[in-house]
Amino acid sequence: MSAEEKIEIHRGLKGVYFERSGTTFIDGKAGELRYRGYSIHDLAQHSSFEETAYLLLHGELPSTAELAAFDAKLKAARRLPAPILAVIETMKQAHPMDVLRTAVSALAGFEPDTYDNSIDATRDKGIRLASQVPMIVAAHEAIRNGRAVPEPDMALSHAANFLWMITGRKPSPQGAQLMDRDLILHAEHGSNASSFTARVVIGTEATLHAAMTAAIAALSGPAHGGAAEDVMRMAQEIGEPERAAAYVKAKRAAGEAVTGFGHRVYRTEDPRARHMRDGVETLSREMGEPKWFAILQAVVDAMKPYARFGVNVNVDFYSGVIYYLNGISPDLFVPIFAVGRVPGWTVQCIEQLHNNILIRPLTLYDGPEPREYRDISQR
Ligand SMILES: CC(=O)SCCNC(=O)CCNC(=O)[C@H](O)C(C)(C)COP(=O)(O)OP(=O)(O)OC[C@H]1O[C@@H](n2cnc3c(N)ncnc32)[C@H](O)[C@@H]1OP(=O)(O)O
Ligand SMILES: O=C([O-])CC(=O)C(=O)O
């Protein structure tokens, strides 16, 4: 056997451990997810986004005073510098993820500690970005719809204020709670593609803003954050529950993935999905539009044969319909994921910085043998 034949290639880094992490535990076979040791189910039911973000960034649940101080820091950052609003205005026709990526990149120019990669400064910048990211999404939504950018309401929670600013309407307590839960469920998920991207960037000792800009870029793809938008499009295309089986059959016959299903780590249902499913079921009933839940469940039924192979619903199968029923435009679904993920990206960067190392795997060359360069006139 030649030396080359012994080399194992892990395409997509499937199943490869590249680091230790004290933040998120995932058991893909059992469908378990914990942040800092706490079950995602407890956090989804009893915590708030603010408390969960504190837990992720500080490692422990906060006391009342600690949570109040953390909340005050978040609220103090609910402002964008005027030039950032001008950037948003200039590119208001673009997809909200392009606007978000560009505005986060531009924010580096207005952050006094951009180049301070100490752990404390990185955490503080992450807290500010946790507020600035929803401000960017909301400002863009207002500007592109010809509305004045709403003033943040300091009496409202992170989730409720975000809803207020994107819709221009004060949310109902149930609407705010659903968004809060959604942000908790999206807050962190180990070394997913966007967080890994953030680690690669900060691994070069670049800044948090550079890492987060790259993470937003990675999140925007349909194989990662874009699924919720695609699921809504799929539900609209299917139109009636009776047509779901034929839709799934046609997709599979074409060798295409059914969006909102499958996961690199989970071999059973994504544990976050059940909280979103409950939300869609209740909301679509309450809003007199039970059809949407029925369509999604019909797709789940049609996908049952694939569950045997570990293909089940993921976190974003149900979330798009929740946003849609709240009157949120489908191109905001990925940005909403980003709003939730800022603490996760930040904590992954902090872990990387704690014991930093350049991330640089290898590719096995299988191109042409050495050959002679010929002048262009002889080719
Ligand atoms: C928040 C998130 O990022 S969650 C993911 C969101 N993305 C989506 O919902 C998009 C649809 N899903 C997918 O494209 C994929 O499932 C991914 C990209 C998420 C994961 O891909 P992988 O890790 O490469 O998939 P995995 O190795 O588990 O696939 C195993 C088998 O299941 C199949 N499979 C995976 N996902 C799906 C799907 N959505 N529909 C149908 N079949 C699927 C694969 O084709 C593969 O079959 P094969 O062995 O016959 O080739
Ligand atoms: O972990 C992953 O690969 C994708 C995912 O579910 C997430 O980022 O929330």
Can you put this structure into words, describing what you see?
- It comes from Aestuariivirga litoralis.
- The protein is mostly helical.
- It has 2 domains: 20-222 and 329-354, Orthogonal Bundle (Citrate Synthase, domain 1), CATH 1.10.580; 227-325, Cytochrome P450-Terp, domain 2 (Cytochrome p450-Terp, domain 2, Orthogonal Bundle).
- The protein contains 17 helices and 3 strands.
- It has helices spanning 40-46, 49-58, 64-76, 82-90, 96-107, 119-144, 158-167, 173-186, 193-203, 208-219, 227-238, 244-253, 273-286, 291-302, 304-307, 316-325, 333-354, and strands at 24-27, 32-35, 38-39.
- It has a 3-stranded antiparallel sheet with strand order 1-2-3.
- α11 (227-238) packs across α16.
- The protein is globular and about 70 Å long.
- It binds acetyl coenzyme *A and oxaloacetate ion.
- The site of oxaloacetate ion has 6 residues, from loops.
Describe the protein's topology:
Blueprint: E1 24-27, E2 32-35, E3 38-39, H1 40-46, H2 49-58, H3 64-76, H4 82-90, H5 96-107, H6 119-144, H7 158-167, H8 173-186, H9 193-203, H10 208-219, H11 227-238, H12 244-253, H13 273-286, H14 291-302, H15 304-307, H16 316-325, H17 333-354
Antiparallel strand pairs: 1-2, 2-3
The structure holds acetyl coenzyme *A and oxaloacetate ion.
Acetyl coenzyme *A binds at residues 223-224, 227, 257-264, 306, 309, 311, 314-316.
